[in-house]
What does this fold into?
Amino acid sequence: AVIGLALTSGSLPDGRYEASLSLEYANGSLASSPSVAIEIDTRAPEARLTLATLPRALDPDVPASFGGEERTTLRLGVELDAESWIAVLGTVQQQIEFPLTREMAPVTETSDGRLLVSFDWDGRSINGVEIPDGLLTLDLRATDAAGNVGASNQLRIIKDSRSAAASLSSSESTISPDNDGVRDSTVIATSYAPADGISEFLLSIANEEGRIVRTEFKRSPFDRFEWLGRTNSGVTVPDGIYRVELEVVYANGNTVRAVSPAIAVDNAAPRVFELSSPYRLFSPDGDGERDLVEISQSGSIEEEWVGRIVDSAGTTVLEQRWEGEPVSFTWNGHDALGEQVADGEYFYLLETTDAGGNYGGADLTLIIDTRSLPASQQPPVVRLSATPRPFTPDGDGVDDLVQFEPVISSANEIARWVLEMRDPFGESFRSIRGTGAPSSSIEWDGRSSLGELVQSAQEYSAELTVTDVFGNVGSARASVPVGILVLREGLLLRILIPSISFGPYTADLFATQPEELERNLVTLRNLTEVLKRYPEREILIEGHAAHDTWEEGLERDLEQAEELIPLSAARAEEVRRALMILGIEPERMRTIGVGGARPVVPHSDRDNIWKNRRVEFILERR
It folds into this structure.
């Protein structure tokens, strides 16, 4: 018999095949076997693992973590061939294998025969044994009927069932972010556990309405944060109550929060509303007159106010403290031991520093005098100063007002006062009056009660006289020098100077007394500096004189024509030559003699006739 077997070269594709054996004998007989089914399978089983983490998705590049309060399980997704698969769970100590069964989770079959499985894994093995915390690996493995070995992708998982906690504290409960170096900031200390496994670290500061004013977000935690009382944009927050909240988010699903105690932002300094006494000088000598002094005081509500009476050497002789508001009290001139203090000057200081480091305070000067006259007979002591110097009320917006600053020390209440301004010859020019004590600053615009303006380059004076309730009078004087006044008249500028002195009936600037000569030179130098500020203007110098004969008539006309016009013209020319020497260009200047034709005051007013003897400068555009 001959046995024939047909063979082909190469591998057949995967699939189902049938094989049979046929025999042909020499005698021509044929015989064949039943067919046998054969399946060729060279493809390894396939499976794929996926993770879905709730409530927040995790970074796919790091191991998935679970076990916290908000992520107690992992949602596993499995797509695999219909084989018998073994799950391999790798822990630090061992590998745990358990078969996947349809009882573990609902199974969905796709049209191509693959199985889909999704279930939540709580970190236990198939038999309910708790897997210890740590890094885990999970993959699937299977061997099919043909001996092909398949494996899924491997997941790296962190099981972390630790609980978490956080707390906050601040170094200051009140801050005043005013850059004075005192409680400008607070240091917020954070405490949290565990220290690892943190995915987000958020610190926020909110006001009482819950509006967030400052945030600090980091992936890595920090132990301290200094808050300067500013928003994220660097703006100082308004005064009020603020709280700090810390939120720590862990990768395993734990989120812990902590809120600090209230932090007060207080930039408002404590205020003294009143600190006064009816008199500053008293004499605790037992005579029944001013043996005590009443100190009236009030202020804002603070934790503590301190009132101290110190002597001129700075030694505290009496101290009192008040909670809330300072309270008025009476001092009898005794120290803390009940002993009479010595005569002299004392200072009462009322002070406090609030919780934010803001200082508030005021002081009061007191004088003890048991040896002088009774207080009712002591006159007020007055000092007076005036600024600016010189004073130029010409309407240019610079130094147009003079400020008188009186300082009065009186044993008694002031009943009235008068400030008298006098011209260079001592005549009354303007009076300002008032009742009670004068204010700390009195303004004057340089005009008389009739509206007349002060004269350029003259020295006026002011005298302040105060009268107390017992009729005692005190006074003080201050000089008020007037600078060069530049008065605008339409397009012209006019300067009037009556203080340039000449020798009697001459045009000689140098034929004067030494004191007048020095005043002339100072005036001309100051005038030169003013004229240099107007280089674009020509200067007309007018000489003016005063009539000795002021009644109209032939005698006055002759005096004007034969004496005053030539004299005033010569004086104007003398001033022009002096200005040339001081640096004013000669081509800018021309002169004219006006004589007594344009008096400032009537020539019959012999007290003020000096105002008519003047030189005027008219500045005209070229």
Q: What stands out?
A: The helical segments are 514-531, 554-581. Confidence is low (pLDDT under 50) at residues 1-6. The CA atoms of residues 67 and 161 lie 4 Å apart.
